[in-house]
Amino acid sequence: MGSFFERDKIVPRYKIIGLAMVVLCLLIVGKAFYTATVKREFWMDVADRLKRDSVEVKPVRGNIMSCDGRLMASSIPEYKLFMDFKAMHDSKTDTLWTDSMVMAISEGLHDIFPERPAQVFRDSLMSGYARMARNYPVWPRRVTYDVFTEVKQLPIFNLRPFKGGFHVEEFNSRQHPFGSLAGRTVGEMYGAKDSAKCGLEQSFDSTLRGKPGVVQRKKVLNKYLSITERPPVDGADIITTIDVNMQDLAERALVDELTEINADVGVAIVMEVKTGDVKAIVNMSKCADGQYRERQNHAVSDLLEPGSVFKTASMMVALDDGVVDTFYTVNCNGGVKDMYGSKMRDHNWHRGGYGVLSFGQILERSSNIGVSSIIDKYYKDNPEKFVDGLYRVGIASDLEIPLMGAARPHIRRPERKANGKFADSWYPTTLPWMSIGYETQVPPISTLTFYNAIANDGKMVRPRFVKQIVKDGQVIQEFPTTVIKERICKEKTLREIQTILYHVVSQGLGKKAGSRSFKVAGKTGTAQISQGVGGYKTGQMHYLLSFCGYFPADKPRYSCIVCIQKAGSGSGGGMSGKVFHNISEGIMAQDVKLSVSDARDSLSILVPEVKNGNLFSAEYVLSQLGVKVSDSWANLKNTSKNIWGIASTTTNEVTLAEKSEPDKNLVPDVKGMGARDAVFMLESRGLKVRIEGRGKVVAQSLGPGRKVGKGDVCSIRLN
Length: 719
Description:
By secondary structure, the protein is an alpha+beta fold.
């Protein structure tokens, strides 16, 4: 190997290479020292021309949609308009900033925003220019995209942002295509802060908001480059359980009644029995201008004494514990009973009361004495058992409502001292009054959930407001129905309560909530509202009027509660029950599709009522319906002449009999005819006709057989 390695030649070469590398390193160090000292000012100027800004890019907020996919809240862009006079100055564009140019811009802004004079715009812009403001507002409020594009077409404003100085800040503006419909539940946004204020907007804010992105904006000399460091992640959409049609129906029904009775607050909730889906939720408060608007979610936040709708839970506990049965009776005397020094009254005490009532009649008539007597008799020595029963049937359950401000029911338990006696806060009257809905606080949504469980064969489900979270058309999260209690009471107890609630509507105080088209079950409630520290006696009485129930009672599909707060007397059955009736009728009318065959009674023959008049037309229609027709003019069926006559109906056929047509100069007898035939018959004789009503003619102003005079008018009344 040594023979091939010539040391004397190789080593000098390595020395030369090493020396060259040392020189190169010295040159690099020298150049760096020269740049850092001698050329420092030059490179600092270059650094000033290279700007890096980390800009946050806001994501698009997700939509809130109804159960059938209709938009209830959506984001559209809005803009705030600014001028950067310093950027305009640095880019030498301010040479265009002359008095005439500023006036032209100001007049253009005045045309777009006519509420502000051009001179005011001019003074404002000149003030910003004098201060070389970097973020000077052109207009104090947000504008739409259309307005933004108009402003951007003005002189100087139409230049690039870093040349002309005009730039914008973009916001996501929340729009509600259905206006205020379910506004408090859907939620609102703080416009200035671009943050959620209440409702589902607030509860699902992180889901709807998405994640902002970051863009690095670099300026090299006079050119700007934007490099996306982290792209924004748009918010997901949430699919609610709200049905827009039901929501609109419930809102109109409630507002109509609130307006009629001059109430202060109204609540209506509609829930689907099997799933717990909240299909409609209305919260109306009377404003200073007399209009009703959604200002607070009373349906989930109001902790008020529920009154008589609570009696169902009390009686269910007594039945379920076996201390009474449906044959149990209570003597309500004259409608007034002494309860430990306080007077318990039924609502009809001034008319002598109810006397003896059975268990079912106590709820049908909503007897305070009946309910309180049962509960006091069997639970006064052990009220803990009664309260435990209330928790057992579920009316005190925490529903975990996903809305800010939602309250859980407050049903207090009796406290005992060390000696076993009740604490001072538990009076002898506490239990009797608790049993009829006082000394407890239950929000409307909790009361409805309890009645919904009765309709759902004893299974209590949590109210559901959101079904799914969707992103780019894909479901990323489901919210299934949650069962709180598989059974709130024994099967026998449930069936007995269901029957009693049906009787409350069919023959008790809840008749106005009923329907002739389907069965309804429920309970009325009328409770006096305590006025804070003033208690119940502060002058004018204030009442909470309620009706809570479900329909159809035989195959429950929907449950509903209506609560109204008003000053002065009122009736839960008569006022809230009326709203319940209108809501239930409207929902069933929207939901049920009927065919002609559904109207036919399978046990009878359908024969329609036929009017007198043109028998050809009647015979044609009857033949199409398959109705047997008896006539005496078959030989004339091929003629083009009209056949006039009368029709009579039997159980299985229609008889058409020809009647000779009266003289053309005489007034005909049109009684029994329809409007078309009657008008034709009269006008063919030169008479003018006035019509009132609809149906068939029952009266005519000109008697039959009278001679027709020129210009005569015959008024006919139909019924």
